[in-house]
Amino acid sequence: MPEEIKAHITGVVFQVVARAGDTVAAGDPVIVLESMKMEIPVEAPSAGTVREISVAEGQTVQEGETVALLE
Amino acid sequence: MFDSVLVANRGEIARRVIRACRVLGVRAIAVYSEADREAPHVGDADEAVLIGPPPARDSYLNVAAILEAARQTRAQAIHPGYGFLSENWRFADECGRAGLVFVGPPPAAIRAMGDKTEARRLMARAGVPVVPGSDGAVRDPEHAAAFAESVGYPVILKASSGGGGIGMARVDRPGDLARAFTAAARRAEAAFASGALYVEKYLEHPRHVEVQIFGDASGAVVHLHERECSVQRRHQKLLEESPAANLSRATKSGLVDAAVTGAREIRYANAGTVEFLVDAAGSFYFLEMNTRLQVEHPVTEYVTGVDLVVAQLRVAAGESLPWRQQDIVQRGAAIEARVYAEDPERGFVPSPGTITRLDLPDAAGIRIESGIAHGSTVSVHYDPLLMKIIASADSRARAIERLDDALARARIEGVKTTLPFLRRVLRHEGFRQGQVNTQMVEQGAFNA
């Protein structure tokens, strides 16, 4: 069962750091959001392989929205 | 005086400048992005021009769109506020070429102070103290050690091409220097493709004290006393006050003299602020100069009784400074609290949203500079400052009391705000005694 990585704040996707297929450790940034002139990373909650990145750079995401799937 | 001024900003500062235009009977023209169609500053102005989509680079930082808005509305001057284009010397220069008066200093002064190494060099040349440093890269750990011995430990190693704290290392003892040097050089190399490091004396628990200065085209420069801005987080100020508590007469007079000397050196005109770090012994060092109106200007207005924004417009229109130094007396005390849309209980993460409730206190000695109204959208695209609440009184203790009372009665719902954090600061014993430094917030002094 893939794990959903959710945005913890509302913001605009500034950078997509990880790609589908990448192996990540817990705490690695998956995407970076820009909100109110601050850049805030959304991190992998646990180690795994990124199955899908569900957002693109420049897109606005709401707090709680899924930005990637991890397995 | 001008007939019309375009205000190239948004939020509370755009409203503040529009109010100053009203005082002078000047037509105020607002600009706004698509995200700000309903923003209060648009309604305040006599005329408003849409300049582009929500991202700042497409609107409030879009020089061509702003100059075109000025042309369309036949504005004679542009007030940049703070942030956005206010410290962009090219923009100031382009205003001049387009026949518009830029309300601020000459482009050359903005440019000189924008380059931090150049600013340090110019201030040192004028005799203003700067943090003792190696003024350029050191060759190797031995070279760094020789320098550290001369200024005394602790020292800090910084990446010559760096920023954002990367490659910085504090060194407390001679024995730690070689290893710290190697590690910092490696990090700097990885981040900036240059391992060059320079050395500076590390200031332990410094205070941030700044001096408001004002110049005119004739070369006259005055100061409007100091502001204490030590309560800050990641270089973002949270509370500011004037006068600074527990500042010796000697340090105070040294600071204001240095600020005026520095401003004269660069032929400064209009409003500006010279920032200093002050150590426990009262020694002070130039940090940087902000070549614009400062967010925290209201505390200076309170204690001196002047209207800084009106003075900016008058001086930009060619008038002489409206005051002599001896006329500018510091009376009473004023404190400003910056209310940000950030969640202090979650590491100050941004909290955009819609304002669903807004009740603000109306009391003696309280001034509120707000950029929002009930129903306002607080957008992800801009700075999180919602408003400033400023209290003044005959004493610092009374001003703190008034501010605490105002913050307790302010109700802002729909977004998280820094209000609860600000109240903790005001109740902190060290703060009440005026014992503050720039590292307190990050060291958790005010945590719940």
Describe this structure in words.
The complex is a heterodimer of chains A (71) and B (448). By secondary structure, chain A is an all-beta fold. Chain A has one domain: OB fold (Dihydrolipoamide Acetyltransferase, E2P) (Beta Barrel), CATH 2.40.50. Chain A is built from no helices and eight strands. In chain A, the strands form two sheets. Chain A has a four-stranded antiparallel beta sheet with strand order 1-8-6-3, with no helix packed on it. Chain A is globular. The termini of chain A are close together. Chain B is of the alpha+beta class and 448 residues long. Chain B has three domains: 100 residues, Rossmann fold; 61 residues, 2-Layer Sandwich (Dna Ligase, domain 1); 226 residues, 2-Layer Sandwich (D-amino Acid Aminotransferase, Chain A, domain 1), CATH 3.30.470. Helix content of chain B is 32%, strand content 26%. Chain B has 14 helices and 22 strands. In chain B, the strands form six sheets. Chain B has an eight-stranded antiparallel beta sheet with strand order 13-12-9-10-11-14-21-19, sandwiched between helices. In chain B, strands 3-2-1-4-5 form a five-stranded parallel beta sheet. Chain B has a three-stranded antiparallel beta sheet with strand order 7-6-8. In chain B, a hairpin with a 2-residue loop joins strand 10 and strand 11. Chain B is globular. Chain B starts with a strand and ends in a 16-residue tail after the last helix. Classes of the chains: A mainly beta (71), B alpha+beta (448). At the A-B interface, loops of A face strand 16 of B.
Quick structural gist:
Chain A has 71 residues and is mainly β. Chain A has strands at 3-6, 11-16, 23-24, 29-35, 38-43, 48-53, 60-61, 66-70.
Helix content of chain A: under 10%
Strand content of chain B: 25-35%
Coarse morphology of chain B? globular
Number of strands of chain B: 22
**Helical content band of chain B:** 25-40%
Q: What fraction of the residues of chain A are assigned to beta strands by DSSP? A: over 45%
The assigned CATH architecture of chain A is Beta Barrel
Could you give the order of the helices and strands of chain A?
A: EEEEEEEE
CA-based shape of chain A: globular
CATH architecture of the largest domain in chain B: 2-Layer Sandwich
Total E-strand runs of chain A: 8
* Low-pLDDT regions of chain B: none
**CA distance, first residue to last residue of chain A:** 7 Å
Distance from first to last alpha carbon of chain B: 51 Å
